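In this supplementary section we document a worked example of the pipeline. Step one takes a protein sequence of length 183 as its only input; no multiple sequence alignment statistics are reported here. Step two produces a three-dimensional model, which step three serialises into structure tokens for compact storage. The input and output of this example are shown verbatim.
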Amino acid sequence: MTILLIGIGFLFLVLGITAIDTQSNGFFTQERIGQHGKSFLIYKLRTLHSKTNKTAFWGRMLRKTKLDELPQLLNILKGQMTFVGPRPDVLGYADELVGADRILLTLKPGVTGLASIKYRNEEQILSQQTNPQKYNDEVIWPDKVRINKWYAQNRTFVMDLQILFYTLFPISFDVDSFIAKRN
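The serialised model returned by step three reads:
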């Protein structure tokens, strides 16, 4: 509980700087798909300037450090998310899963997960593609589903601790090797 209170206090400090930098209230909300396919509003720190729609200096730092995800503590408090699990997706992805892939919808979405670690530099990967949407739909999204299905079938408390560790300390971690060793 103390960690949560410290996190919320830190959030208000960062939120204040964000609000000034983006000339907004500092928050960004977006509809995402959660457990059992129910939609909810995810909270993030705004990284784009409200008037220019360009990433501000502070916003780039927030994205790079993933601190823009900090308000998701509110989603956790509301029972919509957990610390570790598949990331909640925008409409048109998780809500359209079929067959065995729907196992992902049995879990609460997480602030971080194995797929989040593997694709921690997803924006950079997509920026290097000639057709980022196609690459996401044909390469990244199917791989995230594969990773998250494996997680849903094999998750443990110790694994969640490992995922949290590699999220907080972004040192080299090969997700595919991690999965292969446990199959």
